[in-house]
Amino acid sequence: MEIGLTHYLVLSAVLFCIGLFGALTRRNAVIILMCIELMLNAVNISLIAFSSYVVPQLLTGQVFAIFVMVVAAAEVAVGLAIVLAIFRHFSNIDTNDINLLRW
Questions:
Q1: Can you tell me the distance from the alpha carbon of 96 to that of 83, in angstroms, rounded to the nearest whole number?
Q2: Do residues 15 and 44 touch, judged by C-beta distance below 8 A?
């Protein structure tokens, strides 16, 4: 049995749904960041799968995946800095207890 484009897309959809479910149901900010990373990795899988099956000569999907990884690394750095600042202020990173944007 050969692994086709459908298999990669199903894997990508399952990973994205797991990440979305985790991001919407969890209250810990670090776990929410990890779920966002899982969703970005699911997008990378679909980008590379489409690239290798639609235009196998070009590496456009791989290049876009590298850009997504760079953006994800920057997002993690900024997100963890925000989480650390909130933890220093509140001694808690529960998203229900954080209301910095309220008047």
A1: 14
A2: no
